[in-house]
Design a protein that fits this description.
about 170 residues; alpha+beta; Hypothetical Protein Pfu-838710-001; eight-stranded antiparallel beta barrel; 9 strands; about 15% helix; globular
Length: about 170
Amino acid sequence: MPIEIERKFLIRLPDPAILSAMEGYRVRRITQTYLRPIKGSDTERRVRKIEEDGHVIYVFTKKENITKMTRREDEREIDAAEYLDALREAYSSLTKTRFSFPYEKHVIEIDVYPSEIGGPELEGYAVLEVELASEGEDFSLPPFIEVVEELTGTRKFSNKALAKRVEKA
């Protein structure tokens, strides 16, 4: 299973004009649904519906924690029928808009949540993720990104925690 090494940060929401001017800029609307856990397993399972420029793809993902920053990740594209079938095991879901662009040797991903999901704590803020080749790899963020706090290894504003807010609403 491939390894995902990721750092996450709470940031002030950047100016959309600056984001859209970035070379390689992309915008996707993602519906992310968590599936019921398998008894005796700590593997997280989810499906995503990803919409971009009028196209839709569906993705199934399994993740297992190794460290606070590193997880095993098995991800594959699925068809609409598999996606709908998986939704029968759904226990929480969220939607978000993902802005992404390459920066230096990395891809910067900025997730913005609707107010009914993020609540007042995320108004004017977003969650930035960057994948790394190793836990100690150096990287930099664009100068227009204002980091509020690092979220790596915490559940604060994790997608799963935000999806549970929707579940309880």
